[in-house]
Fold guanylate kinase.
Amino acid sequence: MAFLIVIAGPSGVGKGTVVRALVSRDPSLWVSVSAATRAKRAEEVEGVDYFFMSRKEFLRIRKEDGFLEWFEVYGDLKGTPTKPVEEKLAAGTDVLLEIDVQGALAVREKFPDALLIFLRPPNRAEQRRRLEGRAEGDPAQQAAIETRLAQAEVEEALASRFDNVVTNRDSEVAAREVAAILKARRAEASNAEDA
């Protein structure tokens, strides 16, 4: 049985870092690449970090029901392409989504058995430091930090709707915690199949 694992949390919590650490521990996981209408950052790679596309192209795909979930996030559209996720799950491959909180809750509606893990920052000061580090040299990102921190308060209030909550003090430790959660879920499913 293949699992759909969703890691979500506020901006600046370190989702990408934890996902990379998790996949290095468990290369059998297939990470879905989201589509986004925002500009590509200098360090990002097309098709690896996101599929960068125009708003017009995104809306066309959305109209064709091509996204598992989609939302407008800080003025940009982001979504998870449906077809590759469904193909990987059908082939028996565990799929990992790294998306925002509202997207995770939308996935739960379509995949009630999805494993939703909320990633939380250790504190607001550390989250601010991470956001500021990412925004260096980008005035638009710098201006958005206060909005993202305020939104984090709202998103953290939704953590109880997730299966598990992991605090990201250290990405390797957080990845180990997520790996242990996934291992327990796999064992549970295996025991249920044997019963």
Observations:
- The chain has a mean pLDDT of 91.
- Strands lie at 4-8, 30-31, 35-36, 51-52, 67-73, 76-81, 95-99, 115-120, 164-167.
